[in-house]
């Protein structure tokens, strides 16, 4: 492997640390902004140079996408045992915790910082937050106005999920018994169980609740 220039090493270090902190690579635009390049073409030029030096390798079938391929890469410092790792995740609108509705996610409307250890999720790559509307989950201590942290993954029986049922979204408990079709259960006796007519799709599993006092 050929020796890296100072700028190439700086870019590689920035990528490594960004991935360590966030669980994913910085965007081409973020690299451009970090180093003050005039265009994204300059970023791609440096990435191609790192590829030629066998530090990066291109991921097959994915344009402008690389991964680090350097066995002698310096170890990124680990966090102290008593440190708290805080991550920044997007807030993707709200979700009905009452009767399902057809309100679509509004896209990213804000950011939320959370303690990854206490939140208990396994992947930072696609985790997001939704603001709760309604009172159908109060017996699970999820209240109107709370933020729920959602991890996109398959649900197990008993998980609280963000779900799409017959074209409408809601936050409910996912119930799936052997040999029976799944359904959604409210955690409030005044709300009915929901059985899909044609579609029940889990969008993610609720891992934590953030509440403003």
Structural description of this entry:
With 213 residues, the chain is α+β, with helices and mostly antiparallel strands. It folds into two domains: 6-68, Orthogonal Bundle (Arc Repressor Mutant, subunit A), CATH 1.10.10; 86-210, Umud Fragment, subunit A (Ribbon). The chain has four helices and ten strands, in the order αααββββαββββββ. It has helices spanning 6-22, 28-35, 40-52, 116-119, and strands at 56-58, 66-68, 86-96, 110-115, 128-133, 147-151, 160-165, 168-175, 183-185, 200-210. Strand 8 and strand 9 (183-185) form a beta hairpin. Helix 2 (28-35) packs across helix 3. The chain is elongated and about 65 Å long. The relative contact order is 0.13.
Unreliable residue stretches = 72-84
Q: What name does CATH use for the topology of the largest domain?
A: Umud Fragment, subunit A
Q: Would you tell me the structural class of the helices and strands? A: alpha+beta
CATH architecture of the largest domain: Ribbon
Number of helices: 4
> Between the first and last Cα atoms, what is the distance in angstroms?
55 Å
User: Share of helix among residues?
Assistant: 10-25%
Oligomerization: single chain
Which features characterize this protein?
Arc Repressor Mutant, subunit A; elongated; Umud Fragment, subunit A; 10 strands; alpha+beta; two-stranded antiparallel ribbon; 213 residues
